[in-house]
Design brief:
The structure holds two protein chains of two kinds. By secondary structure, chain A is mostly helical. Helix content of chain A is about 80%, strand content about 0%. Chain A has 14 helices and no strands. In chain A, helix 5 crosses helix 12 and helix 13 packs across helix 14. In chain B, the strands form five sheets. In chain B, strands 11, 12, 13, 14, 15, 16 and 17 form a seven-stranded mixed β-sheet that branches. A four-stranded mixed β-sheet of chain B has the order 1-10-9-8. In chain B, strands 4-5-7-6 form a four-stranded antiparallel β-sheet, with helices on one face. In chain B, helix 7 runs antiparallel to helix 8. Chain B is built from 13 helices and 19 strands. The chains are: A mainly alpha, B alpha+beta.
């Protein structure tokens, strides 16, 4: 087990280094923040002095070596625009994204298993067809549109919930619901199709033959075997959310990491971009480890192979 | 059964929301919530010329020596009580003697000298210094606790105007680093800044002036204009200083005002065939400005003949717009062609995404109008970083002739903040090299009173009629949504500052 985690740790470190190198170079390809920071009235000399003082004009390899050296000491530099440590900016925003992702994914997992399993129980039955259409719509609806319509309907017309912002429990309803729609659609489809496969397998027939109740057959015998693909897809979806649910965060004004990262990219605020990438990469690494570990919980064959 | 329980749930939620509303209304009676389009990056006093910082900070947390009237551009006292020009290079300011900073330290001439010194520190790259205190040296001489002299390296008749931009800060402000904790003298103190979420200002007990009606203000930010408008409509916010024209749907709440911004296209008159004035006139006559009003832009925008709005000292009210006359445009092109000017050279119309709401539709319309009169034009859209590569000198030697989309903001009362950086031939954005215009600009900058106004007006006439270096379009309007419980009138200043002390309740 420990060797497994160690091996993954080494792989992750290599991947992170490669990712950071690419981000470092790509971010600088389009210039530096000087022109975006200074007013249009600034003279050429002022611009040059500004860039010089912040060492934007140093050769790229020198900047990179300095960045790696500092990063190893967990120093990711200062945000040019916010005049405070970039890591603080990233770490402040990340919990918001994390909670949003966790809430959404927990709901998506529970609901998709229920709906997917019930739909698979009678393929092409009424419930399956309705669920199929609804989840397909859910998986393909543009979230910015859904978010704005939801605000206009539930917050402005009905006045049930606040339009936006991070506050009490009511303020979570709209963002989580909007964010939930797509993963719920995707996951339900995955659960349904792998359940249909599982329900026609020999061990399910055996279970039915020995007189197990339909509920037991679906939720105990078939579901456990049908979950592996769903866990893989769910892991992917979570990893995607940890990059920030940019659209939802932006429209609802949630101070998550997606929002912060988009702003930093627009401003060419290199230090913040890099700090965010590292924080997100570490989180994605942890999620992947958890997904791998849950495989071995769910499937004894993988457990024995890892051992 | 199912329906019943849903409706019961809905009733329950509505009741809960109502209860929350009632519970908070009492406490909110004298507090306001303002929803901005973006979170300020900083709160440093020397950055209040950045509009997102100024909207929260200027005249709320920090104050200035003088203030400009947003309507007529006149100057009134704030932290200074009076000022006079002692000689060509020296201005003497007398300061209020009853003011204290938020940290308890007294407001004196020393603090004013410190504020000027810190704002000019090069490494801080202060917006106020770069925008307004460039091109000359200025030094502060403390005469006594409440009298201070400013000595400039060249005659500067607009020193009182300049000091409407310089925020006065306490001497405990770090001189070598940007601060997030401004120490000012204003009616409000910064009491909370939760990055990403909100900024809260509370009334300052020791304020020297009349205590404002508002006791506390919360600033929040939403990127989407529709959301900002919805927040005022639902009562979650009281003021949304900028909303898009398509969201300004309720005349009872939405105010439109000339916001100090002027949109135009800069003609690169240094490159053929745009160096021929007939071609530049044709570029102007080909545009149907009226067709854009009330369609892709607000019907309230004003057709512009120069880069400054009415009310700014130096605005020339006697200029007339170029008529929309496609036939005349074609005729001008034909005349130039007959004289050997290669008018069929490809001209690039350079636009910038989101430079203002509707900017992409404007440039698309212009492209079609130019093609209609026979210009060989192509469209190139840029993002902000790419746009900045083109706007400044040195211009690329091998550049194609271009017509360049710009947006200029001057709500600071005087044409110098526009004309010096845009048109003087040695400035970093100018596409002309007219010695006559340079001489006129220099004379205007050194002049005072009526002579200053007249000379700037003559400069704008020359630019508009003799040089034709721009395709002037519109003085823009902003829309602010204000909750009817408030008595607040947005103005040209709302773009750069929002004085909480000017808010009252109905």
């Amino acid at each position: 087990m420990l060797t497994f985690i160690f091996r993954r740790l080494v792989q992750a470190a290599i991947a992170l280094f490669a990712l950071l190198s690419v981000v470092f170079v790509l971010a600088r390809l389009t210039g530096n923040p000087t022109n975006l920071y200074l007013p249009i009235e600034a003279t050429r000399e002022t611009r040059e002095r500004f860039a010089e003082a912040r060492r934007f004009n140093d050769p790229l390899h020198e900047q990179f070596l300095r960045f790696i050296g500092d990063a190893l000491r967990l120093d990711f530099g200062e945000s040019v625009f916010q005049a405070r440590p970039a890591l603080t900016v990233a770490l402040e925003a990340f919990p918001v994204t994390l909670w949003l992702a966790l809430c959404t994914m927990c709901l998506a997992a529970i609901l998709s298993v229920l709906i997917g399993a019930l739909a698979a129980y009678r393929p092409n039955g009424i419930f399956d067809r309705v669920a199929g259409v609804v989840t397909l719509i859910g998986a393909s609806i543009p979230d910015f549109w859904l978010a704005l319509v939801a605000i206009l309907f539930f917050a402005v017309s009905l006045g049930w919930v606040p339009t936006s912002g991070l506050g009490g429990p009511l303020s979570w309803i709209l963002p989580v619901s909007v964010l939930l729609v797509r993963p719920l659609g995707v996951l339900t489809q995955v659960v349904r199709s792998s359940m249909i496969g599982a329900l026609s397998s020999p061990y399910v027939k055996t279970a039915r033959a020995k007189g197990a109740s339909p509920r037991r057959v679906v939720f105990v015998h078939a579901l456990r075997n049908a979950l592996l693909p769903a866990v893989t897809v769910a892991g992917d979806l979570i990893a995607g959310f940890l990059n920030g649910a940019v659209v939802v965060e932006t429209i609802f004004g949630w101070p998550g990491i997606g929002n912060v990262m988009m702003g930093a990219i627009r401003q060419r605020d290199f230090a913040v971009i890099q700090a965010c990438i590292v924080v997100v990469a570490v989180a994605v690494f942890v999620v992947n480890i958890l997904v791998d570990l849950s495989y071995s919980r769910l499937d004894p064959r993988i457990r024995s192979r890892q051992a | 059964m199912y329906l019943k329980s849903v409706s019961r749930l809905a009733q329950g939620m509505a009741a809960a929301t109502l209860a929350l509303g009632i519970a908070t209304t009492g406490a909110m009676a004298e507090s306001v919530t303002i929803v901005l389009d973006t979170e300020p990056d900083q709160m440093d006093p020397c950055q209040t010329a950045k509009s997102q910082v100024g909207k929260v900070n200027r005249q709320n947390i920090v104050e200035t020596l003088t203030e400009i009237d947003p309507v007529d551009g006149s100057i009134s006292p704030r932290l200074a009580t009076s000022w006079e020009q002692v000689d060509d290079l020296t201005w003497r300011f007398v300061l209020r003697d009853d003011v204290t900073f938020h940290d308890g330290s007294p407001f004196t001439a020393e603090a004013v000298a410190f504020s000027l010194e810190r704002t000019m520190v090069e490494d801080l790259a202060c917006e106020t210094a770069i925008k307004y205190f460039t091109g000359f040296e200025i030094e502060a001489n403390v005469i006594n606790d409440f009298t201070i002299d400013f000595v400039t390296s060249v005659p500067m008749p607009i020193v009182p105007t300049l000091f409407s931009t310089l925020a006065i800060m306490g001497t405990a402000t770090p001189i070598d680093a940007i601060t997030r904790d401004p120490i000012g003298t204003g009616p409000f103190v910064l009491s909370e800044w939760l990055p990403g979420q909100r900024i809260v200002l509370e009334a300052f007990d020791g304020y020297w002036g009349e205590a404002p009606v508002v006791t506390s203000a919360t600033y929040i930010w939403r990127t989407d204009s529709a959301v900002r408008a919805a927040m005022v409509a639902t009562g979650e916010a009281d003021i949304a200083p900028t909303i898009a024209v398509q969201d300004a749907t309720d005349p009872a709440m939405d105010f439109s005002y000339v916001n100090g911004e002027t949109t135009s296209f800069r003609i690169d008159a240094l490159v053929a065939p745009l160096d021929d004035i007939r071609v530049r006139r044709a570029l102007n006559h080909a545009i149907d400005r009226e067709a854009m009003m009330g369609t892709i832009l607000s019907e309230n925008v004003i057709i512009a003949n120069q880069l400054v709005v009415p009310g700014i000292n130096g605005h020339n009210p006697d200029l007339t717009p170029f008529d929309y006359d496609p036939d005349l445009a074609r005729q001008l092109l034909d005349e130039a062609r007959a004289d050997g000017v290669d008018v069929d050279t490809e001209i690039v119309l350079i636009g910038r995404y989101n430079i203002y709401p509707g900017s992409e539709e404007v440039i698309q319309a212009m492209l079609a109008m130019y093609q209609d009169v026979g210009f060989n034009v192509t469209l190139k859209m840029t993002d902000a970083a790419e746009w900045y590569e083109i706007v400044f000198k040195p211009f690329a030697e091998d550049r194609a002739p271009n017509v360049f989309q710009t947006m200029h903001d001057n709500s600071k009362g005087d044409a110098v903040f526009t004309i010096a950086s845009k048109y003087r031939s040695d400035s970093n954005q100018s596409t002309t090299d007219s010695p006559e215009l340079d001489a006129l600009i220099d004379r205007a900058i050194a002049a005072t009173g009526d002579e200053r106004r007249d000379t700037f007006q003559e400069a704008f006439r020359m630019i508009h009629e003799d040089l034709v270096t721009d395709v002037d379009l519109f003085h823009m309007v902003g829309f602010t949504r204000v909750n009817p419980r408030l008595d607040f009138q947005p103005s040209i200043a709302t773009n750069s500052e929002l004085q909480l002390a000017q808010i009252a309740f109905n």
